[in-house]
Amino acid sequence: MLDQSLFPNFITRSEIKLRLTAEEADIFAAEIKRHLPVYCYSPGRETTFVTTVYFDTDDFRFYSRANKFRDDNLKLRLKEYYYEVPEGYEVVPECWIEVKRRLGEATSKHRFRVAKVLVQRLFAGEDCFNEIYKSNRELAAEDVRKVFDTFLGVVRTYDLRPYSITNYRRRTFQAAGDESIRVTIDDLIAYFRAPALLYNGFAALTRGVLGEACGQQKHTVVEIKTTRERPAWMLALLDRFPQSHFSKFLTSTQALLRGVQGAAMPASDIVVRGADETPRPRLEGEGRRFLRRADV
């Protein structure tokens, strides 16, 4: 089973990114494995598929801010985690909502688990705290309330809608029970236009239901997240690879808005498809659902 609940619902940490070729990513991963184990959310499964939905205003206020101030911005996103299995996809009835702020190299993230059936009500600004808490009972009620109020403050301030989606495959390296160093390696990154209504007739936002990709990222993206001083071995490794200001939020929006002034990345770094081209800890098994690819 997926168990993203092992990560805290509020965390502040340092975060840096790398944008690597496939060959460079293999070299980097081999070095990381010498120091950190592969973290499996479910035993034996070393990769997780992630769908991230980014929300913005009609005048793209969040995008414009993040594009102008790469180190001082706010994002609101929904994340869903799933596996590809021989039968199709393994999904759960819940997703995560996150409010992420960046200031310099530091990021803070408020997140909470939510039943997918509540998503539309939440983004309409409805206070569904009692229902939200049912999905987050491993935390104290006052802590969940604090995280939830942060979210409500954003959605009640801005008129938001789902705009862009990024879907990718993730490998995570982290010692069990140690939140201080976490490395993720993301590939197969593709960008999609978000539907106006999420989970409207679909149990999960797997790649199979997102339609044709608007663009695909050529590179592999590495994120290094730490809550303490980086060890010497990591500093030595980072000296071999240049850091990047890459943002999935910016590039997914740019894939949809190719004419936006001040684009997030050069056109040579993203493959854009034309319209006519075809290319809480839980019990084992609880909430798990297998979807055949023909069903999604």
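(ticket continues) Second input and output from the same batch:
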Amino acid sequence: MKTEYQKLEPTESGKNLFESFFNTFESKLYDESICNNTLVCETLYQLDMGKSSYKEDLLGAEKSGDMALLLKLLSYDANQSAQEPEYYSDIDRVKYQRNKPIHWLWTYFDKLPMSRNTLFAFRFRRIMGKFMFKHLGDNVKIFHNVEFSYGYNLSIDDNVVIHREVMLDDRAGIVIKKNASVSDFVNIYSHNHDTNDIMDISLAATVIGEGARVTYHSTVLAGLSLGDHAVLGAMSLATKSLKPLEVKGGIPAKKITMVQKDHHGHDCFKVQD
């Protein structure tokens, strides 16, 4: 059975509201006169609490000494936070400082109910990704709880789908080419630790080829590539690169079969003798 994603849209009133929100947010995001950290605080307060009075409520909480409210309000503030990548010595602090407020927004947004609404969340993540990532193509679909290290070393081409609970470790760089699919709970790395010294790391970029599929709960180690239309099977560990059209599975992943095109041009498997 050949399946396709259905085209879903909000109601007309919802569509107009979402569009107004996105246009306002994106305009402010690139406005150099507006502090992006303040923008993030105000945006999260809107999405989390349904209120547009972040600054006023923060001042009120400071005056009243309401510790619970202060903790809540300060939790939106990227300047009061640190995420794991900020501890890494190979970080480009100039590039990451630009990304940090939006990276915090990306992380915090995924804890909100609105993040599960793909009619809103796909577009919102595209706006954030285009600001943070090295490249983000058109019609990219990113589901909830997708994490990355820096963002500025991450390139994602057109029509890529990245499902929930994925880790993209872009410390040395990750390229995901057009029409690729990254399934739930996948880990893709671009750094390794030395066996004898955990603090000794090596960096190597990783490439997921055009139309390639990294399937459920799989891991791709640093410096590897999946060739175009290759498939890494579920719960597999790729320790070596996959050739174009190659299907591998297991721990470590070994060759199982090859992908071929049928007479309609669709992918199909052909088991090797």
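Agent notes: Residues 12-29 form the longest helix (18 residues). Helices lie at 12-29, 36-49, 54-64, 67-74, 93-109, 118-132. Closing as not reproducible unless the customer responds.
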